[in-house]
Amino acid sequence: MFQVYAPTDQNLGPGSIEAHALRAEAMGYDGLNIPEALHDALLLSALALRATTRLKVATGVLVAFPRSPMVTAIASWDLQRLSGGRFELGLGSQVKGNIEGRYSTPWTPPVPRMREYVNSLRAIFTSFQEGVPLDFRGESYNFTRLQPFFNPGPLEQPKIPIALGAVGPKMTALAGEVADRLITHPTNSAPRYIRETILPRLEKGAVRAGRELQDVELMIAPPIATGVDEAAVNVERENQRELLAFLYSTPSYWPSLELFGWEERGAQLRALTRENKWAEMKGIVDDEMLDAFVPSASYAQIAEELKRWYGELATRITFPLPHDPQLDGEAAKAIAVLHGSSPSSSSG
Prior knowledge:
It is a single chain. Mean pLDDT is 96; it is low at 343-348. This protein has one domain: Alpha-Beta Barrel (TIM Barrel). By secondary structure, it is α/β, with parallel strands linked by helices. The protein has helices spanning 17-27, 41-51, 69-83, 96-102, 110-130, 169-178, 191-208, 230-247, 254-259, 263-274, 287-293, 299-310, 328-339, and strands spanning 3-6, 31-34, 56-59, 62-63, 87-92, 136-137, 142-143, 162-165, 181-183, 217-220, 225-227, 296-298, 316-318.
């Protein structure tokens, strides 16, 4: 039913990513999502792909704008060649403050820029594969020169899926227009929000490009609370309560709260951050909110719960690795059920 991807903690670096990838592959995951926060996602992708034989590896997501599309295209082509077709490119725009202050890159409106970024990547990939002249002209990017000396040449599996991480309405619609896949954020992964907000926006973009909604896959990245028993699940629920309290202090993520009638809680959380009252923030995220945003059940029941939440909405989902590797076998059983290859168990 689902393609199941393992998330990667942003703290995992070059010294530990290979073991992480091998562990995920052994557990039966289909893919691995690699973020870009503390480490270079392309470097980590290369190490993960080199260490494995079956696992797909996706950047989730690569910060696009500080890199020329040509730089990204060459690296992606190399990773696709290295892995025999297992690389997937996820892109994100980041916020203005980071683009300008952290990366020293000029800021321009992100949606038209990302449209050109994706379309120029596809033009470059076509030139690599077919040897046709490169001629992409836009407002942000112009690519008109690719001598044979600099063309890496065709691949046996040239199709590199391109996904967009999106939260806002315009970027979500853009995913429907130009991407193969949309990656949700933990704050916009509630089934109601997907049905009422994300899917209509995706369809709007798809129609604009003469596509259909089913041409764009959803990669759901929900904040899951699971564990070997009820006590472990409750611990994870508290972890997710703290995470959501932090995330929802950012106004960009408030549309989910507004849909559920909880818009005042975002303002409360933001006020607490400004007062440095971090310990009080989790009290704003009550159990009703957790029940709406966080699928929660033991390993024996979580797969059926996720099917109930997302079975009619998505084909791909992230699922956390256990903190304790001794529990990998229990998590692997849940992954098998998510694949549809294991007998169903009753939902909790």
